[in-house]
Amino acid sequence: MIRVNEELADYVSTLINARNSIWSKETYPAKTLIIKQDSRYSKVHLIRDGIAKCYISDENGKEFIQEFLGQGMEFGELEVFDRLTTICSVESITALHTVTISHSNYQKLLDADKTFNKLVIKALSDKIRFKAPRHSYQHGYPIEANLIRLKETFPEFISVIPKKDIANYIGITGRSLNRALKELKAKSALF
Amino acid sequence: MIRVNEELADYVSTLINARNSIWSKETYPAKTLIIKQDSRYSKVHLIRDGIAKCYISDENGKEFIQEFLGQGMEFGELEVFDRLTTICSVESITALHTVTISHSNYQKLLDADKTFNKLVIKALSDKIRFKAPRHSYQHGYPIEANLIRLKETFPEFISVIPKKDIANYIGITGRSLNRALKELKAKSALF
DNA sequence: ATGGAACTGGGACAAATGTCCTTTTTTCAA
DNA sequence: TTGAAAAAAGGACATTTGTCCCAGTTCCAT
């Protein structure tokens, strides 16, 4: 549920130790909007610590959460490749520490550093790989099944992530989430 | 709705002209299963002509269509990066012409050819970029709105793609699709 | 500590969608 | 060309989920 990328986190740490200068450290309090949908930015973030949500919101203000991002996850990188505006907003859930690198340095690194290049491709590939079955499952199974599944992969999700965000992640309303949770509590010792 | 990648198609054509030997041409009739979910393959396909569907099926046999693939789209490439089994099945809808390259030659090309590397990264990035708003929209809006949207981006979709596949693409049942189409026909001159 | 804002929980009803089934139409191979 | 199989259309009903509320609770900034 909260995606991480340890390999990339480790490698970037190595890079920073070797050549600190092109990376900057940033800190955000909880609930801060870091990237706003349909805007332009000139840097890529990598999460060192904390949890963020990446979401699309529509004209009616509905949010649909794409991913919860944890340690080692990048965001703002897609715009390096196509130079378009962002498709998602990113907002910290907990306090968040990131390191950032400019688009141009990121591109240089991609060209010059084969290991980095491979890790970035792998990270993109994982984003595709994880999203596919998730949406498929969410559509094809009732809400309760989805909650049980989340509970299995991340037992503390209910206390860590606000209810509204959980609902927006599954793609349902808060009301439906509550109904399902109530029934699960009645049925199962898990909840 | 049917994704294409002209730039990649063109570039691969150039590569084939320059060094034919590492690419093979393949042809499949309509409705052929080319890649089966949870299996291993050792080559990457790129579509030269025709339409295919990429889908996940669950234990109950429900299919959820991830993408319709047209000219210039790759499939089977994710498995080069992580060496895992496939997450999707790919099946031709029309007769399909592809060119294929072995995993090892694909990897060599990624390392040696910066242009190819960039185009592949861009292709991955696009897969992410297109998938996000689509799922968001599908979840957040009624079926009719989704159909109108498809009609706008690809007016002939109803005659080209089987109803069952359209339903599986939107993530609804055939029954619901028919209901919605009937109402749209009554309401709008478009359908 | 306290008052307002935001989160949480749930009742009552409406609407959308799914399930199950039957009928009609189209497709395609013998 | 024709008969079996697949695809499409739709009736009747059940179920799920959403919408619109309101009430209780928690969380902060003053």
TrEMBL record, chains A, B:
The UniProt entry, under PROSITE patterns, shows:
CNMP_BINDING_3 (PS50042)
Q: Where in the numbering of this chain does the Cyclic nucleotide-binding domain appear? A: 28-110
Q: Look up and give the organism this protein is from.
A: Flagellimonas spongiicola
UniProt protein name = Crp/Fnr family transcriptional regulator
Top-level taxon of the source organism: Bacteria
